[in-house]
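Input:
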Amino acid sequence: QSALTQPRSVSGSPGQSVTISCTGTSSDVGGYNYVSWYQQHPGKAPKLMIYDVSKRPSGVPDRFSGSKSGNTASLTISGLQAEDEADYYCCSYAGSYTQVFGGGTKLTVL
Amino acid sequence: QVQLQESGPGLVKPSETLSLTCTVSGGSISSYYWSWIRQPPGKGLEWIGYIYYSGSTNYNPSLKSRVTISVDTSKNQFSLKLSSVTAADTAVYYCARYSNYDILTGYYTRFFDYWGQGTLVTVSS
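Output:
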């Protein structure tokens, strides 16, 4: 069970859109529609932003959206705001009642 | 609003057993899965395992030989034990609720929706 692959960092200016990728295998991301995304500010606990690939929990702005193609899932943040600067982690069900996280991506709002 | 709070020693000696407890408030521990996740300093998240309120468990294969997760429904708590620890086990340990069934839609799902604040455990002599 290897960690999902995410870019170490991405950046964008306020108002722009950024996309964070999350690449796995057919045994995790590609095999199930159970990808979730978490936002983590420094020193804080992760916060659920997207679940089941593209669903948003109540209270999460619709600027956050998720998608999947094959073994790669993506989180897109549109209309970037300063408060979006954080670390983002993807997570996928990996079969046999196990979960696997990505290595995390640091989003910088320029 | 469901709240989770981790508790336990912040310092553990190498080769000893790390023990943490998560107390759930604002809701019952029944009918859900409960998980432990850790994050070494400056690194990413790692799923450790989870337990159903009935006691059935599933663990990360890479940690399975050293991990035990248990539940005490009478206290609305669940616990983590990690044996034979080394410096590599130094991390912030989070407890979280794991949802695998959406009551509203009737569909299966998989995500961590409520998290504790995390507790730093350092392994050092």
